[in-house]
Fold each of these.
Amino acid sequence: MRRPVIAGNWKMYKDLNEAVELASGIRKQVQEFDNVDKVIAPPFVNLTEVAKAIADSNVYLAAQNCHWEKEGAFTGEVSARMLKSIGCRYIIIGHSERRQYFGETNETVNLKIKAAVANNLIPIMCVGETLQEREEGRTVDVVKSHVTGGLKGFTEKEIDSLIIAYEPVWAIGTGKTATPKQAQEVHRMIRGLVKELYSETLAKNKRILYGGSVKPENIEELMKQEDIDGGLIGGASLKIDSYVDMVRKTSELYEGK
Ligand code: PGA
């Protein structure tokens, strides 16, 4: 069985004190839910203090982005190696907001995954179509190109732990969740593609998260879908109660499976 992941993407929210408070509160309340991987991704500047707040717990730290080079004259950038050195375990790569506002492409996503893998960070690779692409019937093509482009050149072993997050752009921060059926269809397609590109074993074990307006009220219906293995959650991960609630619900569902 694939172990579920509940990953909170804090985006550009929370100053230092707020970030530490949120992380500490989450830490206290999720310890008992040991059948779920709990991940939080604060902004860069808060990573070190949040790492301290969750030290020796079963909540893990993620960064939201990185540069692909080890170091160099790249003003304003942060490398995967630096992130590893301060205690990150996961890294979100290719989020649609990065693609949309900061010019990220399948090529840069591919390079960043390479950097993450080289530093033993677990990439959470985001893929997903825009509203226009969905309306034009191009969802499958776009998601396929994100997956194949992002994974280009990797061996099965290198991407063994990599997590894929399907996030339809039109569902992010809009309150418009994909229906469980819509999400499941794309998740199944992605799993099939991983099988085609690699193997049945990798496809069977690959964790694929759904993201886009996930909240305590809709998480169970989504998680009940066969190919959905967790959530990458923005807005609803910014409050202790709601994050904990989503972890609890996921844990209970998987307990019963
Ligand atoms: P949302 O964001 O949950 O606020 O829609 C999800 C994401 O962008 O990862």
Amino acid sequence: MTPNIRPLVAGNWKMNGKRDALGVVKQVADASDRDSLSKIDALLCPPATLLYVATTLTEDSALNIGGQDCHTNKSGAHTGDISAEMIADCLGSHVIVGHSERRTDHGETDAMVKEKAHAVLASGLKAIVCIGETEEERKSGKTLDVLKTQLAGSVTDKATAENTVIAYEPVWAIGTGLVPSVEDVTEAHAFMRAELVARFGEAGQNMKILYGGSVKPNNAAELMSILNVDGALVGGASLKADDFIAICEATASVA
Ligand code: PGA
């Protein structure tokens, strides 16, 4: 954690979840109002097909609902895409941009991610900008160089502590059960903090930096205790209400 930063625990459902998963949204929404979770923000990013139903289900709770990606434009001839403005219209609060699966599956570059982040901010939403090294990059000692390049290339100049969240997700830790050591997470997050402060000054000091990649109920408290880790981006474990709530509770316990 970073002193004075309110942690965020965000769940990314990816291409999972049909209507029968709305029960999970409801369970997490109910839990989000617990006193024990008053020190953190919780967010679920279901697939776009469930977005509006999810925001309707959760409007009286503390749980936020967000999108997993958006187009750079507000509207137009882009079959199959959705815009940040549409997510805002569905009462979403955040949009994830630059997830490694988008970078790999759809060839998204840092420049495209930056443009998407820009579109998110222009729609009045908060951008969760994902960065992280591949296994090969880590093995060849390039992790910090990659983070530097991705931060510079993917985060817009309009970023503030209020409108932008960074999510550090080592690609090799996503969905694998592998997690970097406490020392490696500490080093990466301290490096990103220094880069953000150098570029944005005080805003960089206050910007949330999440860790993502195989966060589970049994490792969340340890990961969230690390300096400059201001919450989690959770994939697989966010599909189960009990696991996601347990990660929220573990985060709140060290906040
Ligand atoms: P995981 O996914 O928690 O299943 O590793 C994390 C992510 O891709 O955001």
Amino acid sequence: MLVAEDQPQLLSQLSAALTDAGYVVDGAADGEAADFYAGTNEYDAVILDLGLPRIDGLTLLRKWREAGQAVPVLVLTARGSWHEKVLGIDSGADDYVAKPFRIEEVLARLRALIRRASGQVTPQLRCGAVCLDPRLAKVTLDGTPVKLTSHEFRVLSYLMHHRDRVVSQAELTEHIYAQDFDRDSNTVEVFIARLRRKLGAALIETVRGIGYRMATGA
Ligand code: CA
């Protein structure tokens, strides 16, 4: 998740709430930083303030869309500024929230965006006996709650959101750790091993030399 917002207090508030909700968050305080992050990472979604220093949000959004960036973007607009909303949507935003907003509304809209982007229509993700609830960051196996660490949850959530394809270790690593974290792709194997131990060995397939995917038929 990328959050581009120049108000430090709002940026840290959003980052904290999103981290609590189980997302990995990179924060950008201006348009240049946001553009750099967006160009070097694959995000599940971007929260983009339109009034950003250096490069404004609309310019960024148009640039990304012209470059074929399909990442879901939720724009933050000034209160009552209908023309900002229209411009935002016209420039390729998927949804908007007007300031001041309640953090719950931002979270709800993000969940909907990510769900739509991954082709899922139900709020809960199901794979065989395993059920994952992104809203509550909870996982059950045959209806029984299973305790996962936040990293294990992120790995499982990412695989379930992209269950139609093989996910490489590098891609997983990128989604588990925030930008400034010391990345170590070996740890993905550890998380996969723990998930198999907790949820069943057959749940996640290893595709040799490529990566992982949720078991077909599961
Ligand atoms: Ca601003």
Amino acid sequence: MRETGFNLNDPELLRTAAFIDGSWVPADDGASYLVTDPACGRTLAGVANCGANETLRAIDAASAALLGWRNTSAKERANSLRRWFELINASCEDLARLLTAEQGKPLAEARGEITYGASYIEWFAEESKRIYGDTIQPGSNNQRLIVLKEPVGVVACITPWNFPNAMLTRKIAPALAAGCTVVCKPAEATPLSAFALAELAQRAGIPRGVINMVTGDPAKIGGVLTRHAQVRKLSFTGSTRVGKQLLADCAGTVKRTSMELGGNAPFVVFEDADIDAAVAGALASKFRNAGQTCVCANRFLVQDSIYERFTSALVAAVNAMTLGRGDEAGVDIGPMINADAADKVIGLINHARTLGARVAAGGRRSKLGSTFVEPTVLTEVTSEMRVCREEIFGPVAPLQRFTTEGDAIALANDTRAGLAAYVYTRDMGRIWRVSDAMEYGIVGVNEGTISNEMAPFGGIKESGHGREGSRYGMDDYLEIKYLCMGGIES
Ligand code: ADP
């Protein structure tokens, strides 16, 4: 089924079939499922509802393509990735429209995501030429010890709906740069952005079988990807609950894994902070993508002496935000991905209220529809409230008080998550003390926007392992092979 309501400059970017071995193919039984617009529920497209058999064929295609792809020169791989990057940039507007339609975020943010997602392809195109091995001093002159880096092989990529473009490019780009081939399973809600990327990859000349995409039943597709011996690695971004399940499923074949799981980011504002900068950082970190970001500030820890000042500045800024459809001009916050997600957020707000939190801004579902939640600020929040203990994944800023630096650190670390944390202070000593004490993979210091292709993104504790982006991001797709060469002196 084709839909024409997107007004794409390039209608061929709207793909609805699975992408296996360089061909667009329907599900074996012809089944499809509907992708809808979260802003209003309208049907956008019917998309191939695949299962185990299509996934097996995608793995076969990726396995068959592996030898050829890993044997291309790094420079050839870099050139292919570079062409893909350029085609994505040239189609930025169409890709952003597709993304907003299926995901809901404001068009300006969608354009930003396309550019951000493409930046990983550019970065890893460049990095592919800089995969270095090592030589090691031997214990005897009769030996030479050499370390080679090799691609891990076929990689499964399972990605979420919150960044349907960038979460995929962050995985596919380093995988391809390293010489791996991939089978991707995009989130059910947002396959159109993924398919458009595959279409452009094909146009860029990336050979058939190197990138495959299967959409449909997560458990059936995931069951094959995690248990198949030819798949040597799983790179997953999603919830901690599903990530733990997939880790267990990967144990049977001892797969390498990269896990980007949920967070519970503290945003700590000390009394010496630049309050305007802290509010700007809070808005960027908390309300981008309607709060549906794993590095989103989840809890604001604000020092007693500036609590009222920070609160009133944040409330004024939040009240000035415009909620609406992502494709309407002037909108700052779009809908949540679906009504269940909005219900969960409203439930968290209500739970906090019953335990004594005050609503300083927003606090309700909007009249715009079942997926729209008003940007919300809660004050007098305490640690036992679910809003502090769970990942909110919505536009709600809960403000907790603290008195001393030690209290702030203890509160910040009181979670099993460890993805991102934010600290606002102008005291250089405190910056180092608090950054050192933070049990997190990423710390934003006087900065609310921390993610870019040059830096290592990833968490510790139950937020996962592995890093995406940066030179470290390539390591996740490389194996080490050690050559011990003897008989040199004979
Ligand atoms: P979110 O809360 O962001 O939707 P999920 O962890 O549910 O996070 O989803 C992230 C990705 O994991 C999606 O592509 C989803 O389809 C996939 N997924 C969910 N359950 C499974 C499963 N049992 N096997 C494989 N993939 C799954």
